[in-house]
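Lab meeting notes turned into a lecture example. A postdoc, R.K., suggested we walk through two folding results consecutively so the class can see how the record format repeats. The first protein's sequence and structure tokens come next.
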Amino acid sequence: MAKITEDRELRQYRDLMRPPESYEEGFGLKAIIGAMFVGLVMAPGAIYMGLVAGMGLGSAPQWVTVILFLEVAKRSFTTLKKQELFILFAMAGGIMANPFSGFLWNQFLVQSDAAAAMGVADKVPSWVAPGPAVLAQRTFFHRAWLVPVLIVFMNTVVSQISNLVLGYTLFRIASDVEKLPFPMAPVGAMGITALAESSSGRETWRWRTFSIGGAIGLLFGLLYIALPSISGALLNEKIEIFPIPWSDFTQNTENILPAVPVGIVWDIGNLIFGMVLPFYAMVGSFVGVLVTMIANPFMYKYGILHTWQKGMNTQLTTFSNSLDFYLSFGIGVALAVAIVGFYHIFATLRDKSVHADDDRAKTPGRGRFDPPKGRGDWSLWLAIPVYILSCLLYIGLCHYWLVPDFPVIVLFGFAFLYTPIISYATARLEGIAGQVVDIPFIRELTFILWGRGVGIWFAPIPIFNYGGVAVMWRQVELTGTRFTSLWKMEAVRLPTILLCGFLFSEFIWRLAPIPSQAYPFAEKMWELQAMQQCLIISSTLEGGSSPFYEALKGEVVGVGLGFGLVGYSVLALFGLPVLFIYGVIRGFGHMPHSVFPQFAGALLGRYYFSRKFGDRWKQYAIVLAAGYSCGIGLISTLSVGFVFLSKSVFQLPY
């Protein structure tokens, strides 16, 4: 492979922010109140919007929470420090991760046509979901759900502790010892800086840009989210200007583009986020989609995509193409990405000077392994036994209770060999290029080789990639927040998400069956997702063949592997941006529905706004996207409130 060169785009991201010289506490009473607000107001909205539009609320609840507290602070003649804002922001984001969302999915999966057709439905263990008689009641307040609830509770607590501990350890190694710059970390810290300036009365370009993005989100959200949600709650039929989650043109273009899923997502957020993401990654995604749209008709003509038939919509077209080609091809391409990622790591180990952050390496009187004073660090020797204990709890739960037939040596290998290695590799690649490395289908392949039955696919196996958490710790550092604030925040966040997630999942399930017409995205997409998941699960069924083995084609895996390696080598040989090949891989074989508007946003940002605003445009785009998330989040929350109110009152028959 050719020598790796650093992308100019990544240098721009790296230089957006620098670590401060001092650190302050960010956790306090405001963070506790913020947790209550997000858990009781924003969390149910996120669950609902995920089922309705498939978009959740993204980072909107975080910005809504921070903005609300800023406005209250102004009217109380006080200010919020940047560190307090960051903890509020992180708290809000963490609470949106509903650990009980899997219950809503599991109850559908065991009752789905796909599970019945592939022989999975009657083999799902009761600790995943109870039988049909209990599910028909649409409530989690039943003793049959007690064991699944206990498993989720333990899994949530243990996984979050190990997540923070190993993520912190990787951050210390990659950032403090190896001095890697983490070029994408400033993206999450720029918006907080903008709001902190507003709180202190120093309103600069950041606050103005954030306000513009918020106004765009409010106006578009009125049409895209509020109008169909509120009209559907108050009228017999909802009014929908922009179809949710997308407009499907597959059946209209099937004569000229057979076996090609065609459609578009109307969410203008894709246009804005296309301006934020690296340009050449967007170009690569667009090229990957174009290649797919050209290649699929030829593969259909020559019998490669033989399952597709006229009349299929986006979901069925995507699934049939996956069976015939893209499942195997995607495995090969993902293997190529993993190989490229590891090569990238080894290459930079030989030439650290290219990527070292010199300013961070020149701190006087500080050893290589010494953290900055006042940052709130703790000994790495304490982190190691905590991680070991969490892994042993995982192994005990899986081997002695849930899946005793699965080899315990494999669980130890996942916990103490694979997870640390792949997490370190990802942390280094995040620190260098803002990318993630992973070994594809390692979990699935292991289950196929050593697993029996269906339960192994639902058990909390200790296989993780914690490398991305190192980026979060870098953001904590960039905002000058003392690290102890994060542990205090976690002590409040965990009970909040467990309680609110359970109660609001129960409430939303009682409103209407999931999926149903009340939840358009779930109604459109969940059956496709069930088919894809059951296809993989069927590989471990005892006695009989599985459709998975028919879909897995070794020669196509080899083609995908060769395509990824050759494509990367050619780009590196000619000095083209490495991000381009990652984009091509993202776009190849996937639905183009959101890629087109994202690419349009990338072009608009590159060839209009960059020329108009110069090198600072990337900073403007990041803050603009944060404002948009806030605006559409406010509208989404208002819409969900109308829906909940309408569903919670009794309507008289006259």
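The second example is placed directly after the first for contrast:
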Amino acid sequence: MRQRLCDYAILLTIGAILTLPNLGATSLWDVDEGVNAQAAREMYENETWIIPTFNYQLRTAKPVMLYWLQRVSYSLFGMNEWAARWPSVLAAWLTVLGVYELARRMFDRATGLLAGIVLASACEFCLLAHAATPDATLLLFTVLTYCLFWMGHENGSRRWWIPTAAACGLAMLTKGPVGVALPGLVVLLYFAWNRELGRLWDRRLVVAVLVFVLVAGPWYTLVAVETRGEWVRVFFGRENLQRFSTPMENHSGPFFYHAVALLILFTPWSVFLPAALWYGAQGSRSATGWPADTTTYARPYRFLVVWFVAYLVFFSMAATKLPNYMLPAYPAIAILTARFLIVWQRGTLAAPQWLMPAAMGGLVLTAVAVAVGLLIAGGAWPVLPPAARVFPGLERWAFLGLIPLATAGVMLWAWRSNHRQRFLQAATVGAIAFTASVAAFPPVVIDGYKAAKELVETSGVADPARDIRLAHHDWFQPSIVFYAGRQVTELPSAEAVATFLAIPTPGYLFVPERTWRQLESQVNVPTQIVAQDYDFYKNCQVLVVSNGVAFGPAIAATPR
């Protein structure tokens, strides 16, 4: 128990290093963070736990779990970005501990500890741990599902049914059917591989279904009743079936989209990923597990391989593709990567001589890509077209590429000296330093090129004492609603804009500058520009135009 608590302390310390620096320093990232943070705020202010809304209209895109957690966080820490993101940070920490426990149960303590570190320091996992989105929460309940299944099914036991069903119910409340369908598919394929499908025919199945319904069913029933079936109809029809069969919101890609994304977003550990998957597949086909390693057996490898492949194939077949869809497969590849490195370090795995030099070469390429990418994105290396988005200031962080470069150098020295433990220590320290730095500092530079929060603060539209109206035309970011704390009405046409500004009650219009220059001749009341800022999402200057008294000095006046 003392060793386990020590490992927990190590993993939580690493988790804090990777997630807490600058957690609340950036404004909400649109679209997802803005929508989720505001939906939770509206539930908090409306004192409801049932009906999710955004911009004071029904929100059907996601179930309710994240909003519940954010609502609790708001009550503890206030209405701010840090509080909106804290549930994801906490879920990420608990997920790392869950992966440690699962890998420890499957293999040993060393594999568990390294698996937790690999997962925590993988770039996409770390970035989503900073995000006010349901991804980290879904991952927590997915890992909980697989942990409870693995611990309950060992040695022919059938104790896994009820706790696994309860965990799936929590996942269902977090992101819908994917929280139960894919774990069910993984368990089915795992038992089929082991020729144990008979273990699925059990009277406990009835109880498990009942438990699942008792966990997830009450909220789905209440939201269906309260919205007269509208929420359920749109969520299951549009947000699940249609999203799988039809590319939505321009999020499409080829079949190999997620395979390529994994190699990029599992950085810096992706340099070991092909080898880890290969040897994991080899272990799953052998009664003794790893080649030349007789201390384990095939079952863990089969389960991890099925876990990874099921998610990869399922989301590769889906028409709508986003990088975060594959996050629930990260624990499986983190454990496989950790196991590969541990058995290699112990000398029980005879890897080809070229394998580790190839991995170090991958780190060098990563270093070059990071440095060059930041120089280009910061505008210091002018190779992009004139109209391309650049973020002056990012080039100052190009030195972050030195971290993987230095890591590769230390690893090379350790490899030549045959110090495998030092090789692995260098890889681990380098991964933590690199991912923590990338997650904490460049986003602060990019944040300076987001318009929503600055426009709201400059225009003064967040003042609750003012009787004002807000609207948008041809430009909108969801975080505007969060920062303003008011409904922002969409104006679909020039006539609607003119009517909005003609009403005597002070009105504030968010509109791109180029669009306003086309519209202002059709507005027949005095107006003034009370705020303006550049928005990198739409790559345009955005104005706040008002027909009322400016909160501060007007930036420009356009009398009519």
